[in-house]
Amino acid sequence: MEKLNGKKKLRVSVFISGRGTNLKSLINFSKRKSSPIKIVLIITNNKNAKGIYFAKKNKIKSLFINYKNKNNAESKILINLKSHNINFICLAGFMKILSKKIINIYKNRILNIHPSLLPKYKGLNTHKRVIKNKEKFTGCTVHLVNSKLDSGKIILQKKVRVLKKDNENSLFKRVLKIENLIYPKAIKKFINSNL
Ligand code: GRF
Question: Residues lining ligand 1, CB < 6 A?
């Protein structure tokens, strides 16, 4: 771990595949003097991920990993995590499932954000299913990553009311705003109680 401002900061790698609003929120959080994290490396499986812009803007190194062969991709990821002394990973819209090869090395050191109130609505198209099932509430969850999809220990959740007039897109937008708010809070909470 790196000592900054007299305190130890976690050296974090954020994995993204697209837009990157959660990445943006984590970068803003990391820039605070009192932040417990330093974002050192952005990893993406998508060369055109819009979120890479936030890495560039903030002079954070980003690395494209070709996922044609998952095993090779993960080996390359591990080499880079090691060479950058990464001790914590945040998945933020990363559309690949990590295998045990990475999860076992970073056990209890990988967080993910998911757009539902887990354990409900694991997987994709959460908002579409929530609307179809006429749920009154949905939300978002930050959880630890284990080898089962969207199933690790829940660190922080926030409820969002589903309005009668909501469609998939309006709900997505409202939940995403809340995601951006809770991800840094979840990291703080996790670090304070576990590290
Ligand atoms: C978010 O809805 C997150 O919950 C899901 O993927 C989306 C990523 O959004 N895992 P962004 O790229 O952070 O804007």
Answer: 16, 18-23, 51, 92-93, 113-115, 176, 179
